[in-house]
What does this fold into?
Amino acid sequence: ETGVTQSPTHLIKTRGQQVTLRCSSQSGHNTVSWYQQALGQGPQFIFQYYREEENGRGNFPPRFSGLQFPNYSSELNVNALELDDSALYLCASSPRTGSSGELFFGEGSRLTVL
Amino acid sequence: AQTVTQSQPEMSVQEAETVTLSCTYDTSENNYYLFWYKQPPSRQMILVIRQEAYKQQNATENRFSVNFQKAAKSFSLKISDSQLGDTAMYFCAFMKPSGSGYALNFGKGTSLLVTP
It folds into this structure.
């Protein structure tokens, strides 16, 4: 069983640029969530995708957007990068069966904005 | 909005000893889930233990157990027989099941160091 994989693992961007982060969900999981984890903080929910539709969103501006593909993989796009966007971005997948709530996380993509 | 508070930024315990991590939360919901997740250094976050709010019995998973006090909105994690591999950040998290996704609200975490 393949776990959640994310790419790239590290990247550096400059303020104003755009970034795309990618996530492959765990086999059999059809729901993908994205979280932002700033240094020394707990993860914060960005949004969730189910069946290629956004299905819940946290308190993040519209310049944070996403996609989910038919194979359930997902992308997180951030436009007009700001210094405060520097963080570890975590992708998590789960099966949409019941409400057990357990999420399976990837190792994250660490974004540095200069 | 639900808030999760972990009042212990850092804790240390000796190998084989027992340690308890604290967590309180604030919600007006009656049906919800609580979790403890572990994030080892440079490794992915994994679920340690889960508690459904409607269950009075405290959840246990091997050396890990919780003390769930619903009225007090408290959810502490006890790690027995601590091992060096337990060194990690521990996050308490709250989830309210809904039709619009399953978002976890995390606390700021407790950094646990297990020493020989």
Observations:
- DSSP finds no helices and eleven strands in chain A.
- The interface with chain B takes residues 3-4, 31, 33, 35, 40-45, 47-48, 50, 55-56, 58, 90, 94, 99-103, 105-108 of chain A (CB under 8 Å).
- Residues 16 and 29 of chain A are 34 Å apart (CA to CA).
- The mean pLDDT of chain A is 92.
